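dumping this here so i dont lose it
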């Protein structure tokens, strides 16, 4: 699995009433330099035109898939729905109001391949914060994490969901994402992953 030079990656995006912002998120995924992916948009029971917008993109790119929760489950529950239905060994996350840089997935997959066959690995990145009204961005430099980082994560927040990629098996080992966590969801997820994953 880990030695596949171009493994399939499942990208999970939870969405709720994001008919406008979801376009930018999907545009940034379609523009990725790495092309072996599926994108699972999980609609957490939106009441706007989110579904119609996503289907516009599905008609353009069959790698995009749409799932609808039958009731609101929150962001963590929506992410779990995406993980359950993912086809790939590797799962990456994006949020419906975030965009990826064009080579984001390519760089992270390269790190996974170099790591070898282990599925107990998390690859992460820094992010940029974009100020729409001022048309400027600044880098959000997260604490440096490499190797066994459980102790570090207990003291300091970890990577954001849009910068994370890990194995589906690792997510199964932590019994998926905790739907009872309403804030700092990625921090909680990273702490749980760090119990047995190398970062």
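and the seq i came up w/
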């Amino acid at each position: 699995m880990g030695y596949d030079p171009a493994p399939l990656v499942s990208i999970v995006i939870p969405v709720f009433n994001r008919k406008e912002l979801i376009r930018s998120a999907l545009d940034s995924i379609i523009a990725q330099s790495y092309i072996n992916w599926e994108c699972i948009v999980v609609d957490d029971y939106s009441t706007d035109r989110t579904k119609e917008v996503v289907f516009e993109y599905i008609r353009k790119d069959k790698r995009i898939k749409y799932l609808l929760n039958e009731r609101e489950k929150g962001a963590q529950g929506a992410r779990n729905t995406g993980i359950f239905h993912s086809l790939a060994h590797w799962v990456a996350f994006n949020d419906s109001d975030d965009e990826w840089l064009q080579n984001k997935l390519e760089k992270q997959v390269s790190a996974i391949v170099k790591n070898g066959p282990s599925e107990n690995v998390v690859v992460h990145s820094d992010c940029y914060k974009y100020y729409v009204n001022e048309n400027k961005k600044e880098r959000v430099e997260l604490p440096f994490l490499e190797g066994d980082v459980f102790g570090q994560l207990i003291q300091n927040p970890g990577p954001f969901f849009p910068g994370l990629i890990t194995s589906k098996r690792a997510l199964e080992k932590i019994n998926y994402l905790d739907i009872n966590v309403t804030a700092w969801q990625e921090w909680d997820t990273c702490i749980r992953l760090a119990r047995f994953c190398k970062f």
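The chain has a mean pLDDT of 95.
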